[in-house]
Predict the structure.
Amino acid sequence: MMGRFLVGSSSITILFSLFTAISGSEAAQPHTESARETSASPRSMKGWELYSWQAKTGEWRFTLCPGTNRLKSIQEILSQGVPLGELRQQLSRLAAGEHVFWRSAAWFQETHNPQFDPGCRQPPAETVGVIKDVCAKRGLQLRIIP
């Protein structure tokens, strides 16, 4: 009886040692924030579409959405608008190398309805520069479509 207990204890000890060694080696591997960020960075096969307009309050709003083969509705674009600070955060989460297509008012009217103007415009040069800098630092390919 005692022999079986010792064998059982040895087996448990060996399994515990093996588990500790495996767990310890995984725990010893560094998990950096940038490694987690890279694996969680969103990607879009068709790039990203960026829209901008000035709200009635005077604040510039932006919508960043995955590119698709369909036109976005005006409601879809305007309902997702965020201020510049949030856009910067959204852009900084995208994977390096992603393409961002910034749509202009002319493009929007040409593709939707020439008589309708939802107010999609580009903000002042200073704000455009901020967005260009964020994209460049993140390694995003920004293309402004006139």
